[in-house]
Amino acid sequence: MNPIYQYDVHLPVNLEQGKTYPTIFTLHGKGSNEQNMFGLVAPLAQDFIIIGIRGNLPLGAGYQYYELKSLGNPIREMFDQAVKDLEAFIHYATEKYPIDPDKRYLLGFSQGAILSMTLALTMGEQLKGIVALNGYIPEFVKTEYSLRSVKDVSIFVSHGEYDSVFPVRIGSETSAYLKDQTERITFKLYPTDHGVSEENQLDFLKWLKKDAESNINKE
Questions:
Q1: Mean of the pLDDT values across residues 110-125?
Q2: Fold of 7-213
Q3: Which family does it belong to (predicted)?
C-alpha cells in the first residue's frame, strides 16, 4: 500500500531488534505541517516512535486534512474521507515499523485535535490514548458516526482560556461529552490563546510517559 499521506518518522536512536515501541502519531493544525508538531514531542523521541502525518491538501505555505464550509463546519465528505484515510495510515505504519499496536497514541492540535478525538471514537481501544489540544468534536460525529467504546482509551484534552478560534466553552463542552464516555480523561485549561504553552507541553509529555508505562488489561 502506498500511503495517501507524506510523513516523517523518528525512530528511537537505540532501536532494539525484535522490540516494539509505543508510538505517537502527530496531526497538525490547518495551514501547518508535520515538522511544526515534532518539537512538541521531541523530548520523548528516545522512548517512542514519532510519526508526523502531513495533511494531503496544500493550504498557503502549509497543509490541511480537510476543507471547511465555515469555521467549525467541515465539508462532510472531505472530513469523512480524512478519518478513513488516517485510520488506514495508522494500520499501514503499524505493519511497516516496529510499533506496539497496544500503545498507539494520537496527538493533535486544532484540526489535528478534532481528527484525533474523532478517531478515538471510531477506533476505540485500537488506540491506547490521545492528546487533543484546542479542538472539538463535530456534532455529526457524535450523532451519525458508528462509535466504539473509549472507556479504556486514555484521553488528555486541553484548551486555551483565551482561545480566539474555538472559545473556551467549546473545550468544556468537549470535556463533558468525553467524561460521559470514559473515566480515563484529563482536562486542563491554560491561560493562552489558540496555541500550546510550555506548561501545557510539559503536562502532556509527563502524561504520555506515565500512560505508556501503565499496562491496562484490554479484553
A1: 98
A2: Rossmann fold (3.40.50)
A3: Belongs to the AB hydrolase superfamily. AB hydrolase 2 family.
